[in-house]
Design brief:
This protein is mostly helical. It has one domain (about 10-120). The chain has helices at about 15-40, 45-65, 70-85, 85-95, 100-120. Helix 2 runs antiparallel to helix 4 (about 85-95), helix 2 (about 45-65) packs parallel to helix 5 and helix 4 (about 85-95) runs antiparallel to helix 5. The radius of gyration is 18 Å and the shape is globular.
């Protein structure tokens, strides 16, 4: 279908669906991996480890894979986006004591940034 002026409708272009499908499939894999780890090892520090590992892997992905490569949306936004969890971090921080929640948030932020930086150097 063409719009006024002759431009093609972006929803009708076949290339637009590929990254969306890759992100969705990767998100399923990452979310299931996070759920599995969280079920096997429930607790606040499991989420911490998941988020720090995801930060490291995302740092490595950004440096290692070329920007236009199909694996970036699959692995970055999809798998690692589903694997890491901001909502879990927030809920666990609020449910913890004020001291533990504050330490948890600060430790996650610092360790996540350090892990991402380390990932870019591997």
């Amino acid at each position: 279908m063409r719009r006024a002026g002759g431009s093609a409708d972006p929803d009708a272009e076949p290339g637009i669906w590929r990254p969306l499908v890759l992100v969705a499939l990767g998100g399923v894999v990452g979310s299931l991996a996070r759920y599995g780890l969280g079920s096997a090892l429930p607790g606040i520090w499991t989420t911490f480890g998941i988020n720090v590992a995801g930060s490291f892997l995302l740092g490595a992905l950004v440096v290692r894979w070329p920007p236009g490569h199909w694996s970036r949306p699959l692995l970055g936004s999809g798998v690692l986006g589903g694997f890491t969890t901001m909502s879990g971090l927030a809920v666990q921080a609020v449910d913890a004591s004020p001291t533990t929640g504050t330490v948890y948030l600060a430790a996650t932020l610092l360790a996540g940034v350090a892990a991402a930086a380390l990932g870019t150097r591997t």
